Fold this protein.
Amino acid sequence: MYPEHIRHAPATGVVEVHQPTPITPAVPVTAPVVPVQPDTVPTVASVVLPDGRIVTGYAIPTAQPEPVTAKPAVSHAAVNVALGGVGFLAVCGGLLLLTSFIAALTALITQLIILAAVIFGGWIAVQVFTARGHHDHAGTTVTIRKAIFKRNHFHG
């Protein structure tokens, strides 16, 4: 899985070693420290550990969290306006989808009617142009219940 370890000849070139240069930190100019007596003397607390040792030190006051400011209540009118807007958008979207559906359904019905007309018209054309029996090509004669129509004239 790993390539075989290949021994290489030792490097013969010159190697340069760079040592980092330390940077001296800048000393800020500060005012001289003057000891000031605190306003109050902090309280000293002693705690007895379970093994009997006593630890004494200054008590650290617990940090009091800042009081949470009360958020202003949202008025009922604003809530009603927002809900009304959402409802209006939902109704508009529904009407748009309904209109699109009706248009698509109308187009489908129209295409089905046209398809039926083409099929029925083709069937009629096949019935008319199909050779059935003897046709007299010299003139058109149709006999209907003893009445004779000969070249668009009624002979009864």
Residues 135 and 141 are 9 Å apart (CA to CA). The radius of gyration is 53 Å.
